[in-house]
Every structure is written in structure tokens, then in C-alpha cells.
Amino acid sequence: MDAALDDLADPQRRPEILQFLARPFRWRHQATHDVSAQRNTPTKPTQPTIYKPSAGPLLSRPHRDISGRRHVPVLVNANRFPFLRIKKPQPASLSGIIRSTARTREKRLLRTEALKQERITALDEQQWDEILEYQLGVERDEGEKAVPWQGAIDDSLKEIRQRTDRAVKKRIAMAELMTDIVDKETALAREEHLQRQDKAHKIRKARRLKRQGRDPAASGLPLDELADLLNSNNDVEPDSSTASNTEDGPDSGRPASHSPEPGFSDSQNLINAIHPYESHDDSTITAPSREANQLLLAALMNGQSLREALTGPGQRSQGRWSQKATGENGWQARNDHHTVYRATINTYRLPDSGKKSQLVRVNPGASNNAKDDESRHGVEDISKADSDTALEREQIHQNRARRKEEKTRRKEEKARASEERARLHREAHERKKAAKLHEQSFAGRMKRWLRAHDLNAYESAQSDHAPPPDDSGTFAENGGIHSREAAKRPNQDL
């Protein structure tokens, strides 16, 4: 206790003892028991938390590898502060930076105005000291002579001016960098747009080549993308279980399966798998036309099943294969309402049968009764239909050419009429202008001649509403000059 009192008398130990006594009892007890442990146990320095933003620095743009479509930033000038607007809404941090920069510039301007007002007062004080020194002999100190009253104010103004210049140069450099970033981003966006267009064109070309039975690799697509495209389009297999028994027996329908033939492409094998039908007569092979094959193949590649492709979109898969008794019209796809969706069928007869090739067309809604005649089956000669179609097409082309010629003729007539109206208008304007000039010149000559010769006779004639006498040599009833001397020398009087 005495030692504690002695320490209390010590001016260096006194604040520590008083601070210790001012603590609560719990804190004093903990401090007395933990002080040795705190002194003996070394503590690890705390590692500062490093913040790593998800996006890179702004000036590191443009980024080559991005996810999604590239958006070109916009260079914006906000209160003389340039920045790049990447997206909307504007980040709160950017708004804070803009407000802080504007506030700093405003403070500098206000400080500059205040210093200018103070400088006026300092100049007055400096002038007063000079008056006292030169007129009254009041001497100043060496420090006052070395540093004038306005010296500190001039230094402050100079510092503010330098800071403002540095800020302006920094903003100019930042604007140039941001402009360069916008130009590069625009070029990359245009390049990526062209690449997307080229890729879409190659995909369409690959699909078209595949529909035509050619090698899709000729489209120029990479192998991995081409494999994904082919796998996505080949996941639908033709439904070969739709063969049904008809009046001709179980063997007259479509076969249940078909193995790909060597030497053919996938498209050709798919077509062969769709219609590998042979009738009872070995000399006749019936198959759909090329147009029907292309339509059916396109439907299958778009993800439709065989029944959906044959019965039409939106129909229930209740269609069935049927063979007519005569075997003339090949196979057809029908739904429950007996509507024929396969509109075109080609029948090829082999040369050994002695018959020529016959192309027939099955109209939608044709009867399916084998005892009906050919007209009730809706069968017609496709060559005649093709010739009629060619004639109609030729007629359409002729009508189109005739309408085009008529339109051209009307346009030429309209142009000629417009030119004629313009010519007549110009001629009328020229005549009117010439008449006006002639009238002005004649009236002027008449007035000058009357003023020089017989103005009193002209005024009396105007007052009496009668022409002046003919022997006066002035003018006749028609206003013409009748003086022989004046007629002989009209320009001399003028």
C-alpha cells in the first residue's frame, strides 16, 4: 500500500494508477489476471482484407472473351466529368464520384472568388504601408518588406490554379482513353456481329446440304458444332410400324423396316426407308415424287415423326398406310376422315413390261374405293397438269411484262406533259415580262416627250377626256406619236 502511495506521488505513474482505479471492478480483476498472458503470448498480425471485384478495371477494356452479346459503352459528359456508361441504372458509386468531383470544383471556385476579394483589401493595406513609409517615415520590418500583404493570397490562388489545371488535364486524358475504348468496343461488336451472321449462314447451309443428301461438312462449320447440329436433327427416326393390312392381304403394305443401302447418303437412305414399296407386279415400282420426298424429309429433320409428317401438323397420330386394290396409285397416308395428305405420287413402270412411264397425281379427298373408275380416284395426267401450269406461268409473265410496259409508258407520258407545261409557263412568263418592259419603256418615252414638248396640251386633253388635236404633233387617239419630226428622230428627244 505504501508502494502504491509512493507511485501515486510519482507524476509519471499517477495517471496510470488513477485510470486503473476508475475502471469497474470486473475489468480491474480481468486486467490483473490477463496481463501476464497478454504479455507472454505473441499475437499474429491481422491480415488486411483484400477486396477483389468481379469485374476488371475499366481501362482494361475491351475484353476479348465475354459471355453473351457485347454492349458498346457510351461516353457521357456529366458536369464536365467524362465517364463510360456501361449499363443502366447508373451505379451508386459512380454517382458519388460525380457529386464529389463537382463539389470539389465548386469549392475551388468559391475559394478563388473569396481570395480575389481579400486580395483587394491586401492591396489597400500594402498601399497604406507604403504611404506611411514614404510620407511619414514609418519604417517596416525586414519580413514585412520581403513578404507583401497580397503575397500569401497570390500563393493560394496559384496553388488553386495548378490543382485545377491538373484536374482538367487528367479529365482530358481520361476522355481520350475512354474514346479509344469506345472505338475498340465498337469495332469488336461489329466483328462479332459479322461472325454471328457467318455462323448462322453456315448452319443454314449445313441444314440445306443435309436435306439435299450432300455432305454438310462443305458448309465450313467446325466439326464439334457440326456434330451437335447433326445429332440434334437425327434424333427422330422414321416410324416404320405404321404398315397395315388392306384388301390385298398382309404382304401388300409397307415393310416394317429397311436397312440402309451402301453407296447412298443419309438423306437418300432416309428416303428409301420411307417408301421401299414394290407391288405384286414386278414390273411396277411406286414411290413418291421428288418434291414430296423433300417436303417429307424436311418435316422429319424438323423433329416431326413419320405419322405427323404424313398426316399434317396438329393432327393426332391415327394415320395408317393403305394400298389401293389395283396398285396403280401406290401408297397413301390417310387419317380417320379419309383425307389424302400425300398429294403427288409418281408411278414408274420398268422397260421390260412394255409400258411407258406414267406420272399420275392423286388429288386430296380422292375416293379410296377400288371399284371406282379412274376419274373417281382423282387420277389425272400430270403431264397435262404441268403443261397447264406452264401456260399459266407464261400468261402470268406476259401480264406482268405488259403491266410493266404500261407503267413505263404512263411515266414517260407524265414526264412529257410536265415538260410541256413547264415550257408553256416559261413562254408565258417571257411574254409577260417583255410586255411589261415594253409598256414601261413606252410610257417613259411618252412622259418625257410630253414634258419636253406640249405638256399643257396633254393635261388639257386629259381633263377634257378627248385626244389632243392631230396637228399639234403630240399623239392620236391610240396614244401613238404623230409628229413626223419626232417619228423620224425618236431617240433624239429622249
Strand content: 5-15%
- How far is the first residue's CA from the last residue's CA? 144 Å
Anisotropy-based shape: flat
The count of DSSP E runs of length 2 or more, i.e. the number of strands, is: 8
Quaternary state of this entry equals single chain
| Strand order in the sheet with the most strands | 3-6-7-8
**What structural category characterises the helix and strand content?**
alpha+beta
- In percent, how helical is the residue content? 40-55%
Radius of gyration: 54 Å
> What is the element string, with H for helices and E for strands?
HHHEEHHHHHEHHEEEEEHHHH
Indicate how many domains the architecture comprises. Answer: 4
Detail the poorly predicted runs.
Answer: 34-39, 50-55, 234-289, 311-383, 466-494
Q: What integer is the average pLDDT?
A: 65
Number of continuous helical runs: 14
Biggest beta-sheet profile: 4 strands, antiparallel
Task: Give a written overview of the molecule.
This protein is an alpha+beta fold and 494 residues long. The chain folds into four domains: 2-30; 69-201; 236-377, no CATH class; 453-494, no CATH class. It is built from 14 helices and eight strands. The chain has helices spanning 2-9, 14-22, 25-40, 92-135, 142-146, 151-211, 223-233, 266-274, 290-301, 306-311, 382-452, 455-464, 484-488, 490-493, and strands spanning 74-78, 81-85, 284-288, 320-323, 331-334, 344-349, 358-362, 379-381. Strands 3-6-7-8 form a four-stranded antiparallel beta sheet. Strands 1-2 form a two-stranded antiparallel ribbon. A hairpin with a 2-residue loop joins β1 and β2. α1 (2-9) crosses α2 (14-22) and α4 packs antiparallel against α6. The chain is flat and about 130 Å long.
